[in-house]
Write a structure and sequence with these properties.
Radius of gyration of chain A: 16 Å
Mean pLDDT of chain A: 95
CATH superfamily of chain B: ABC transporter involved in vitamin B12 uptake, BtuC
Helix content of chain A: 25-40%
Order of helices and strands of chain A: EEEHEEHEHHHEHEHEE
Largest interface: A-B, 21 and 23 residues
CATH class of chain B: Mainly Alpha
Bound molecules: adenosine-5'-triphosphate, magnesium ion
Radius of gyration of chain B: 19 Å
Mean pLDDT of chain B: 87
Order of helices and strands of chain B: HHHHHHHHHHHHH
Structural class of chain B: mainly alpha
Distance between the termini of chain A: 29 Å
Largest sheet of chain A: 6 strands, mixed
CATH architecture of chain B: Orthogonal Bundle
Helix content of chain B: over 70%
CATH topology of chain B: ABC transporter involved in vitamin B12 uptake, BtuC
Shape of chain A: globular
Number of strands of chain A: 10
Largest sheet of chain B: none
Oligomer: heterodimer
Distance between the termini of chain B: 40 Å
Low-confidence stretches of chain B: none
Number of domains of chain B: 1
Chain lengths: 211, 274
C-alpha cells in the first residue's frame, strides 16, 4: 500500500491567545494538487507553517510519506519544496544564483528560472528585484528543490501567484498543474484553485472541503 | 616628530605589542562586525560589554583573573543570544535588560566586597599601548578563530544572513552556525575590550563592517572590504596617534569614522540610497 505524500492529523494552532486552526486533518495522495483557500487572516499561512515545522502547533501530527515527523522541528521543511508568502530580501547583497543554488539542485532551479522568464536576473542582488520577479525566482528555487536529492515529491507554496502579472498567473498555474509531484497551494487565485484536484477552505479555524 | 623618532618608538616593546594588537584586530574584528550586522544583533554588543564587567567583578571577588571572568560571562551571553536572536522581535529589549541588570549587580558585588569599582572598570577603559603579552596571544587566537570560522562557514553564513528560514529549508544547521558565530563574536569582543576599551570597540568592529556594506556586492566582497578598511583604519590611526603624540583609541575612532563616512559619500555619488 502506498502512503499519502503528506498526512496531517488533528492540527491545532494558536497565535497569541487566538485559536487560529482547530482540529485540521487532511491528506495529499501522491501527485495530488490541493488548493487551500480562505479569507485574509483565516489561518492558511499559520497552518502551512505548522505543517512545515516552522512554528510549533499546540497539537497534531504530521506524516511525510508515512513517516511521523517531530512537531515544530524544521525536518519537514528540509524534505519538501517550499515558497513562503513573505519573501525575504536579506541584509547583505545576496545574488539570485546563490538563492537558486540553495534549492539543492542548481541546474534544475536555473532551468525553472528560464521557464519563468527570470534566467537573465541570476547575477542581480535579490533585494533589487521587483515583487513579481522575486516571486518568480522563489518559485524557481522551489521547483529546483523538487528535483534535489533526498526530497519528498511535495511542493508547499503560499500564494505563488500573488505578485504576478496576468500572463504570469496563467503560466504559473499551467506549471503547477502540470507537476508530477503533490502540491499544497495556498491561493486567492480562483482560476488556479479551480484547476487543482481538490480545494480545502479554512474558515473560523475549521478546515472544510470546498466545492 | 620625524621618522627617526617614529622608528625609535617602534623599537619599544609596548609599542610593538600595541601595533601587533591592532594588526590582528584589523583582520578579525571587522569580520565580527559583519557577523553583528548580518545577525542583526547590534544592541547585543553593549550587553556583552556589561556582562563582561559583571564577570570581571565576580572574578575579582573570587580572587581569579578578571579577564577570565569577563570572557566566561561573554561566552555565556553569546550562547544565551541563540534562542533570542531567533525571535522576530529581535534582541534589543532583552539585551537592554541584561545590560542594565548586569552593571547594577556588578557594582553591588564590588561595593559589598569593598573593592573599588575602578578595578573592573579598567576593562571598559583599556589602552592599546598597555597591551600585555597574554592579552595579545588571546586576541590573536580569537581573531584567527573568527577568520577561520568565516572561511569554513561562508556559504551557510550567507544563507543565515539572508534569511534563517530559507537557510533551514536549504538544510543549514542554523542553530549550530548561530552558536559558533555568537560565541565567537562575544569572546572576540571580550578580548578586544582591554586593548581598545569598551567605548572604542565599535571603531574596530562595526565601523569597518558598515563601511564595507556600503560598497560590497556580496557577503564575500563585504568581508574582504571590511578587513581592508579595518587594517587601513587601524594602521593609519595608530601611526597618526604616535606621530602626533595623541592617545591611540580616539584617533583610531576618528580614522575609522572618516573611512565609513567616505564610503557613505561614495555610495551616494554612485546613486545608491543615502
Ligand atoms: N506572528 C503573529 N503573532 C500573532 N498573531 C499572528 C501572527 N501572525 C499571524 N497572526 C494572526 O493569525 C491569524 C492568521 O494569520 P495567517 O497569516 O495564518 O492568515 P492567512 O490566512 O495566511 O491570511 P492571508 O490570506 O492574509 O495571507 C490572523 O488573525 C493574524 O492576525
Ligand atoms: Mg497568508
Amino acid at each position: 500500500m502506498t502512503h499519502p505524500t503528506l498526512e496531517v492529523v488533528s492540527l491545532h494552532c494558536v497565535r497569541g491567545r487566538q485559536i487560529v486552526v482547530e482540529d485540521a486533518s487532511f491528506a495529499l495522495q501522491p501527485g495530488e494538487h490541493v488548493a487551500l483557500t480562505g479569507e485574509n487572516g483565516s489561518g492558511k499561512s499559520t497552518l502551512l507553517r505548522a505543517v512545515l515545522g516552522l512554528d510549533r502547533p499546540r497539537e497534531g501530527r504530521v506524516y511525510l510519506q508515512g513517516r511521523p515527523q517531530v512537531p515544530g522541528s524544521p525536518a519537514v521543511l528540509r524534505q519538501v519544496a517550499w515558497m513562503p508568502q513573505r519573501l525575504p530580501l536579506g541584509r547583505f547583497p545576496f545574488r539570485v544564483d546563490e538563492l537558486l543554488a540553495s534549492s539543492g539542485n542548481r541546474a534544475a532551479a536555473l532551468e525553472s528560472a528560464g521557464r519563468l522568464g527570470v534566467r537573465g536576473l541570476v547575477s542581480r542582488p535579490v533585494a533589487e528585484l521587483s515583487g513579481g520577479q522575486l516571486q518568480r525566482v522563489f518559485l524557481a528555487r522551489a521547483l529546483g528543490s523538487l528535483a534535489a536529492p533526498g526530497r519528498a515529491p511535495l511542493l508547499v507554496v503560499d500564494e505563488p501567484t500573488a505578485a504576478l502579472d496576468f500572463a504570469g498567473q496563467a503560466e504559473v498555474a499551467d506549471l503547477l498543474v502540470g507537476l508530477d509531484a503533490a502540491a499544497l497551494i495556498v491561493t486567492h487565485d480562483e482560476p488556479l484553485a479551480r484547476r487543482c484536484d481538490r480545494c480545502l477552505s479554512l474558515a473560523l479555524g475549521r478546515l472544510q472541503d470546498a466545492p | 616628530m620625524n621618522s627617526a623618532d617614529l622608528l625609535d618608538l617602534l623599537s619599544l616593546a609596548p609599542v610593538q605589542r600595541g601595533l601587533a594588537a591592532i594588526l590582528v584586530s584589523g583582520v578579525g574584528m571587522p569580520i565580527v562586525g559583519v557577523f553583528i550586522v548580518g545577525l542583526d544583533i547590534l544592541t547585543a554588543r553593549f550587553a556583552l560589554m556589561h556582562t563582561a564587567l559583571l564577570g570581571a567583578a565576580i572574578a575579582l571577588l573570587a580572587g581569579i583573573n578578571p579577564l577570565a571572568g569577563a570572557l566566561t560571562a561573554c561566552a555565556a551571553t553569546g550562547a544565551a543570544l541563540v534562542p533570542l536572536s531567533r525571535r522576530p522581535s529581535g534582541t534589543s529589549g532583552a539585551m537592554g535588560f541584561v545590560m542594565t541588570v548586569s552593571i547594577a549587580v556588578a557594582f553591588l558585588l564590588l561595593a559589598a566586597a569593598g573593592l573599588p569599582a575602578s578595578a573592573a572598570m579598567e576593562l571598559l577603559w583599556g589602552s592599546v599601548l598597555a597591551t600585555r603579552p597574554a592579552d595579545l596571544v588571546l586576541l590573536a587566537a580569537l581573531n584567527a578563530a573568527v577568520a577561520l570560522a568565516y572561511l569554513a562557514l561562508r556559504r551557510p553564513l550567507a544563507l543565515v544572513f539572508f534569511d534563517r528560514e530559507v537557510a533551514l529549508a536549504s538544510g543549514v544547521a542554523v542553530d549550530r552556525v548561530l552558536v559558533v558565530t555568537l560565541v565567537l563574536v562575544a569572546l572576540a569582543i571580550g578580548a578586544v575590550m582591554p586593548v581598545t576599551g569598551a567605548l572604542l570597540v565599535d571603531a574596530v568592529t562595526l565601523l569597518p563592517a558598515l563601511a564595507a556594506r556600503n560598497l560590497g556586492g556580496s557577503l564575500g566582497a563585504t568581508v574582504g572590504l571590511a578587513v581592508a578598511f579595518g587594517l587601513a583604519g587601524n594602521l593609519l590611526g595608530f601611526g597618526i596617534a604616535l606621530a602626533l603624540d595623541q592617545p591611540v583609541g580616539p584617533v583610531l575612532v576618528l580614522t575609522a569614522g572618516t573611512i565609513t563616512l567616505g564610503t557613505f559619500l561614495l555610495r551616494r555619488a554612485r546613486g545608491g540610497p543615502a
